[in-house]
Amino acid sequence: MPTIAMYNMQKEKVGEISLAESVFAAEIKESLIHQVLKVQLANRRAGTSDSKGRSEVAGSGKKPFKQKGTGNARQGCKRAPQYRGGGVVFGPQPKVYNLSVNKKARKRAISSLLSLQYKQEKITVLDALDFEKISTKDFASFMKKFDLERSLIVTDSASNNLYLSSRNVPYVKLIKPDSLNVFDILKYKHLVLTKGAVPLVEGAFQL
Question: What's the per-residue H, E or C state across 154-168?
Answer without folding.
Answer: ECCCCCHHHHHHHCC
